[in-house]
Amino acid sequence: MRRPRQQSGAALLTAMIIVTLIASLAAGMVWQQYRAVQTEAADRARAQSAWILQGALDWARLILLEDAKGNRNKPVDHLGEPWAVPLAEARLSTFLAAERNAATDEEGPEAFLSGSIEDAQSRYNLRALLTGPQVSPLEQRVLERLCSQVNAPPGTAGALIAGLRAAYPAPASAPASAASATDLSDSGPLRPAGLDQLGWLGLSEDTIARLQPYVVLLPKTTPVNLNTAPREVIAALFDGLDLATAERLVQARRAKPLQNIADAANYLPATVQIAAGRASVESSFFLVTGRLRQDERQLEQRSLVERQGLTMVVLARERSNRLLPQ
């Protein structure tokens, strides 16, 4: 009489094990399907964001092209031109809809786009420190003054010069005495492609943040545009110039942009000499920034664009994705 009960108990246990296995397999399949859906959604969102930011870059290139066409006869770039007006953050549906109305605002994606175009030649180009076998004493004084004005730690200019000279080889036309610099660059620090990578040269994040609005590292030496440069850069660029005089130039150009270098001389002391190739009133390099904010994340793309006549060439591009503070 007990054997049937034992058999029924074993059958029940076997059934429970089978049900458990099936439930486990089903849960695993559901989890794999969920992960696949999430991965596909993330890839699709990433691709869409990349295309949107690429569209913002194309928009900026079009604005720079129209500016070049308008300045073809007399190239002058200043902060009163359309390219210098930043794009305030706006809902993406306002760009996608043919007509803006209440319906499109409600149905549009919860994504917001903003951007700006900045004159890269409004900053001091660190490439000027890399010309010739030795650093020009004038360029060294410029960097030292600029570091002092932004309250960078003592010795920042020397550390930056030493790091850049070690990372970049001397020009090919340099004499044989510069061979040691070339050898050092082969085993020295990595070459920074942008200001964010100056930490490779030993600079702290705080020091980089202080210098970032005023310096840039471009592929070649460029003059500083006096129509767009901040007063700190203008004051550091010339010997014998202080911040107050540089501010006077900044205020004067707001009322009437400089048309040539001779106009700038009217606002500078007679002792200040504007050397050829160190200052100008036009620019060829621009920094284009596009930002896409969605939910709690912001995707930012920064591009370096060189304007070669009527051709816009993208030289560098970098993206960052960060979580916004709540």
TrEMBL record:
Location of the protein in the cell: Cell inner membrane
Pfam families the record matches: T2SSK (PF03934), T2SSK_1st (PF21687)
Superkingdom field: Bacteria
UniProt KW keywords: Cell inner membrane, Cell membrane, Membrane, Transmembrane, Transmembrane helix, Transport
Domain T2SS protein K first SAM-like: 122-220
Keyword hit for Chaperone: no
NCBIfam families recorded: T2SS_GspK
Family designation: Belongs to the GSP K family.
Protein name: Type II secretion system protein K
Organism: Pelomonas dachongensis
